[in-house]
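go over my protein:
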Amino acid sequence: METVSQIHSTRVLADEYDLYYDMCDMFSHAQEGEVWAEHWMCGRNRTLQVGDEVFLLDLPYRQTWDDREDDLKESYPDRGIFAHGYLIAGDAEEQLRELDSEAYGDLSAAYCTNPWREDWEEEDREEILFVRFKLDSIVDMEHVLPIVWLQQQSGCHDLFTDAPYSGDIIPSDIIPSLNDYWEQHVRKQEAEDLGLHL
C-alpha cells in the first residue's frame, strides 16, 4: 500500500448508512496489537486524497442529527470523535481507478471497491464510494471526545455547526485546536487503558 507522504486536508468520516455494526470492536482489535486499516464510506464525495487526515465520529451521526427534535446538546450529549488516522491507498486490485478508469479515473488511490457491492447490487441501492484508511489513535467507544464539549472550547466553536456528511472537510482554522484536544483526550484515556496510540 502507498504510504502517507503529505496531508492534503482534514476530513470527518461518519457512518451515514449505519453499516459498521462492529465499529465498537475497533478498540479491542487495537488493544490486541492489530493495526486497523479498513474501508469507510464517503457517500458520493470524489475529492478525498491519499494522505488526508481523518477524524471518525461515532454513529449513526448524520441520520440522528437530521432527525433530532431537540437541541443537540440535550439530545445527543455523548456523540463525538473516537478515532483519528489518515487515508491510504488500497491494493491495486481494489482501487476503483484501476478497475474502471473511464468511470473513476478522477479518483485518488484511496478509493476502493464497496465491501458490500454484491448485496448493494441485489438491492438496487444507490452507489456510494469507499476509501481506505489507517488509524493512528483511538479511544474506547464509551469514552469519545464529545462534539458538544468541543464546541465550547477555544478554537472549536464553529466545529460541525451543520451536520457533516462523511468525507466533508473540517475547516483548516479549527484543525490545530482540534488536534490538541484530541491528543489530550487520547493521553487521558491511555492512562486508564481506554485509549491507544498505534
